[in-house]
Amino acid sequence: MTTFVDRVVLHVAAGDGGHGCASVRREKFKPLGGPDGADGGNGGDVILVVEHNTTTLLDYHFHPHQKATSGKAGAGDLRNGATGDTLVLPVPDGTVVYDEDGTQLADLVGEGSRYVVARGGRGGLGNASLATAKRKAPGFALLGEPGEVRDVVMELKSVADAALVGFPSAGKSSLIAAVSAARPKIADYPFTTLVPNLGVVDAAGTVFTVADVPGLIPGASEGKGLGLEFLRHVERCAVLVHVVDCATFDPGRDPLTDLDVIEGELEAYRTSLSDRPRLVVLNKIDVPDARDLAELVRPELEARGLEVHEVSTATHEGLRELTFAIARVVAADRASRPVEEATRIVLRPTAVDDAGFTIEQTAEAFVVHGSKPQRWVVQTDFSNDEAVGYLADRLARLGVEKALADAGAEPGAWVVIGDVGFDWQPTELEEAASGLRGQDDRLTRPTRVRAEERRYAKDLRRAERLGLGPALDADVPEDRPLQVVHDLDEHGGAEGLAELPGETELPGETELPGETELPGETELPGQTELPGQTELPGQTELPGETERPDEAAPR
Asked: What is the pLDDT of residue 415?
């Protein structure tokens, strides 16, 4: 079973933001509690983090789909939705992240290095957060923003100081096992090493890492053998160590030819390694013929400017000098590197003339590009007219309407923002920002009846009993039955009844039309008759009874 994987395609999906809540507070003895819809929670991010305990990308080879949790929706009573959990994915040191097009996104080197590969969506605002002085009771909320979904390619480039390269069965695995505690698979057949092996060596107080790369053969750049697939692990190395087999009996092979072939394959690699220092190791000198061959080719190799070491992994001859030489080259490389400074946080404010969007005119429509307009469209509930009006207000304040007009858009033109297209109908910015959307007249309408209004209402009921109902109902609006009360206030209260149409005024009293005197009414002795009072025939007055002056008006 595969135990080492250095390249995977990872499908990541961040969490979606929770929807905002549109709610109105309902509590006993507290009318018009106002909006109390809370915000939705943000979605979780997907983050790659370097951990020293992780040495391979094998886990993501078997589980390539990784998704963070989404945020919860907001609720009433100002209860915000829970934030989605961030998904942390451990990766080995030296992992390089590419997008689908091959563009490098991150190079994760060093313990704790992290990269946000997918960002979670923002939670939608509830109507409590959308309430303003002009929009006191919004009847809508914003939707949650979807999380980022993408595919990335992760490649592992081992962080090693020295790399062992050469033909198969040249003794590279035996060499790394002899100088370090690594225990790679060793056998007497080619391509024993199928995956890179790493070993740590301590020589002369310098600690460095050695990488054993699978063997290369002629034509590896064209896909023969294991190809150049594993050469990415030598890109970070400070020194290349050529391991040459001096005891091979293959026809057409000798130390000089093997060295030239390997150098040619390295030149065919996509990243040039010509600037790296080289060491040549003539291996297997424990064989008599191999020792003689090593002594024969050594002067020619040194004439090329290469440092040559004769070693035997079986008897450990020459290994100490080899490790000291590698440590010297590694220490020199480390000393020549510039000192890494702490990462400086650079703040780049938005340009003054940056409107936050651009407009592209195509043959079919006007396309609006920009993160803000596209995010606003995604968070709008188009089934709610008030939410659509709020979107229009935001776009107008951002200047999209004016920019569309300047671009030559006519009313009814097709406008596309993100995945949404619509017929553009321009509105005035002042009207859009007037705050009429989201208004609740119950918050501004007086609910307590004043004393004069109760008195006027009483006069209205009395007028209705006297037959003035139809005349008054004609002037009373259906949506405001007390409007006539304010009309009576302009005529002086109850006295205004005398000026209503259809009445006949008598001296001192207003007589209702159609009133007649009943025959037979008699007046009792001592009764005081007010001016304009109508006496019914046959009425008798009790002795000593007097009529109160305030009973002038008939009841």
From this structure: 93
